[in-house]
Amino acid sequence: xxxxxxxxxxxxxxxxxGFGRAISLAFAKRGAAVWACDVIEDELMETQRLCVxxxxxxxxRVVDVSDKAAVDAFVTAAxxxxxxxxxxVNNAGGVLGQVGRPLxxxxxxxxxxxxxxxxxGAFLFSQAVTPSMKAARAGRIVNISSGAGLGVSLTGIxxxxxxxxxxxxxxxxxxxxxxxxxxxxxxxxxxxxRSNATTERQxxxxxxxxxxxxxxxxxxxxxxxPDDIAYGVLFFASDYANWITGQxxxxxxxx
Length: 255
What we know:
Elements: E1 9-13, H1 18-29, E2 33-38, H2 41-53, E3 57-62, H3 68-82, E4 87-90, H4 108-136, E5 139-144, H5 158-178, E6 183-190, H6 197-205, H7 207-216, H8 226-237, E7 248-251
Parallel strand pairs: 1-2, 1-4, 2-3, 4-5, 5-6, 6-7
Helix pairs in contact: 1-2, 1-8, 3-4, 4-5
């Protein structure tokens, strides 16, 4: 399967490391003009550098995905530079350094912060790119949720499991709303991947026995990589997925 994105403009959120970096690189290597954003500037600039070294084009900008004005300004800049937005990957998210705690110990602020980065950010970016995609009568939106949104979270963080489930609901709703304009909206639900400092701490916390147990529950008997997630995104963004929308693919090695 030959997938190329020459002449396409792609926005990737949460692109400083992990999934976001792998997704940005995958698109850049295949000819897309990548506009990448994150709040971690130094690592984001490294993503930009790696995309250029790989022969691709990438513009990195610091953007808080929960800030509507910042989101709108970023999308406007990308649209002005490239004439239109073809693909949006809502990857920004995570647990923001939080750990699992009993329900009664979770503050409203902690709850809201996780919702803002995982759900509100996806909503704001989807809202911002929609006019361009509607005008073109084409577009791809790919949201990155989690196996936690389909079941329970290994972290025990209530807001994370709830936010990822909400993002899946948003995916299905937008697929029906935007479908008449030829815009598809789909979702990747990754399994456990050692992709950043947070997941690495989580992995180490399991200890040797817990690590073996986690891997043994996976059909393919191995952890995934950020590239495994990126390849799923490439498929949803490609012409091979023209008649697929509102769907969730679990990229988790089989459960």
